[in-house]
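Weekly puzzle thread! Below is a chain. First person to post its structure in token form gets bragging rights.
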Amino acid sequence: MADGESAIGEAADVVEEASDTKALDVVARSGFAVIALLHISS
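Winning reply:
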């Protein structure tokens, strides 16, 4: 299980570095919000 968690942690670090801009952060948060709303309404 440690290998999987390590890979997830590394992937999260890469995504965090790649999305180190305000615009991408806003887009990502908006996307999560839309997914959450769709999940709740269905």
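Puzzle host: Confirmed. Bonus trivia for everyone else. Residues 2-41 form one domain.
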